[in-house]
Amino acid sequence: MARTSPDAKGELMSNTSDSSNAGVSVPTGAISVAGAQPEIVADQSGEELKLILGEFAGPLDLLLYLIRQEQVSIYDIPVARITDEYLRYLRLMQEMDISVAGDFLVMAATLIEIKSRMLLPPDPNAAAEDEDASDPRRELVDRLLEHQKYKAAAEMLWSRATVEQAVFTRAELETDKQNPEVSAGVFDLLRVFQEILARHKEEVLLEIVRDEMTMTEMLERLRNMVLSSGELNLRVFFERARSRRELVLAFLSVLELVRTTEISLIQRETFGEIVARVSS
Predict the structure, then answer these.
(1) Does residue 22 surpass a pLDDT of 50?
(2) What is the number of other CB atoms lying within 10 angstroms of the CB of residue 240?
(3) Neighbouring C-alpha atoms within 13 Å toward the C-beta of 50
């Protein structure tokens, strides 16, 4: 995936960043964003970790997620609110020292342009059909619909291949209908992380000396908390962090255990609390 240059990235993000956002120093090195299935990989030296979110996720996936969260029609996107939320996610990535891929920044510029055009007064001389054709959102809506179509087709093919490879079926569990669950995605995890991170911005920094937790220790803490009860509300896990540095380590440790399939993330309702569960 192509990346923007640091100068180009800084020019765009400087127009969207909040002056109150302090940078978070991530001890594990640079992190890159690519898509939907979380994965952490190390370089050959073992010193740099990269966060990879999967093959299909990108700016359109993030937009669709935000539109679902707003509970609005894809044909009537509230551009101002969606743009603000989108830029908020980019600021979060920047604050975590995540290297944002170029197509995320291109979409940010597109949203800002559409938002600006929506603020212009309508042409009083334009006919009704011309106004519909000139809706600044139209091209974006078409792209989102096309993306949804291809994504649905890919999911159908994947499901079909999975079924064909299956050699056995299990009986229906009692909880299947009584307690429907959905898999939690990376953007759901980012939403919870962002809420906890916002609280840490309010903390008073004290000049105290204390041992800094390592990534290995954070992974062990997460394993123990999940194994002790079988499942763990991740909000509780994040809130145990004593500093913003520990909070970032906690976030990365969740992604690492998902990558190694030691845990799975579920929600009991859409946009509900995210629970880490020991993988079966």
Answers:
(1) no
(2) 11
(3) 15
Can you tell me whether residue 62 is helix, strand or coil? Answer: helix
Q: Considering only CA atoms, give the Rg of the chain.
A: 21
Per DSSP, the three-state class of 173 is coil
| Number of residues that this document lists for the chain | 280
Q: 22 with 128, same domain?
A: yes
CA distances from 170 to 149, 178, 183, 264, 274 (A): 31, 17, 19, 20, 26
Which residues have C-beta within 8 Å of that of residue 136, sequence separation ≥ 6?
A: 79, 113, 114, 117, 118
- What predicted TM-score, i.e. pTM, was given to this entire model? 0.44
- How many H helices and E strands in the chain? 11, 8
- Inter-helix orientation angle 59-70/102-119, to 10°: 50
Identify the domain containing residue 15 by its residue range.
Answer: 7-169
Summarised one tens digit per residue, pLDDT across range 145-154 is: 888 887 777 6
Nearest to 221 by CA among 257, 258, 187, 197: 257
**Per the structure block, which two tokens stand in for 80?**
């101002």
Task: Report which listed range, 48-52, 90-94, 182-186, 251-255, is most confident.
Answer: 251-255
- Count structural domains, the chain: 2
Q: Which amino acid is at 149?
A: K
Whether residue 27 is found in the same domain as residue 140? yes
